[in-house]
Design goal:
By secondary structure, this protein is mainly alpha-helical. Helix content is about 55%, strand content about 5%. Helix 3 packs antiparallel against helix 4. It is elongated, with a radius of gyration of 19 Å.
Length: about 210
């Protein structure tokens, strides 16, 4: 590629995850169209294009996602964007003499249930492991281990980060994580894929937050 493209992400000053995700998706779109010649090339296989998506586009959309807490609508927005890219990569299918768009279920089966939301869950768990191994005098560790004072605003409260990670543990079937997190390389290697570490599937006899 002869041209260089720079993707600028403006910070979100009001701490709105929804607005941040909208910015990330727009940035992901710009990244896709900046590299559209690669995704349209017939010299590259679909498998290579999926790797390009995960290498070039998904990091732009999910930058900093290990600190996110997502609502259902925000998760849906991320999944819609990802499916749009996958449909462009795979193209329509020929069925009963007609071209038809691939369904969400077909795309999910093609990727064995893996998606960007599960991948973000893996990133959160990976970051949790980093926090747990961190020295006690580090500021992120202090913030993580302390409880903030004050009251929440009225209305349904947004999920806390710890509550989001608890759900990630349930989805990825990760248990007794404190016994496993000491092995940094193995822990990060499994969690970064958004798949459950098979060696972590054991009987759960302890609470997640002791």
């Amino acid at each position: 590629m002869t041209n260089k493209y720079i993707c600028v992400i403006w910070p979100c000053n009001d701490n709105s995850v929804e607005k941040e995700i909208q910015r990330r998706i727009l940035a992901g779109n710009r990244t896709y169209f900046a590299t559209i010649n690669l995704f349209r090339s017939r010299l590259l296989s679909r498998a290579i294009k999926i790797i390009l998506y995960k290498t070039l586009i998904r990091p732009v959309v999910s930058y900093g996602a290990e600190a996110w807490t997502l609502t259902k609508n925000e998760e849906q927005a991320l999944l819609i964007f990802e499916r749009k890219i996958f449909r462009r990569i795979y193209g329509p299918k020929y069925e009963n003499g007609q071209l038809k768009s691939r369904t969400n279920r077909e795309l999910e089966e093609m990727h064995k249930g893996e998606n960007t939301v599960k991948w973000i869950g893996g990133q959160r768990i990976s970051w949790l492991g980093h926090l747990d191994r961190m020295e006690e005098d580090r500021m992120p560790k202090k913030i993580f281990s302390q409880e903030l004072e004050g009251t929440r605003r009225r209305g349904r409260p947004r999920k806390r980060w710890k509550e989001e990670v608890e759900r990630d543990f349930q989805v990825l079937v990760v248990r007794r994580w404190r016994e496993l997190v000491a092995d940094r390389k193995k822990w990060k290697g499994h969690c970064s894929t958004g798949q459950s570490p098979q060696w972590a599937v054991v009987l759960m006899e302890e609470v997640i937050w002791p």
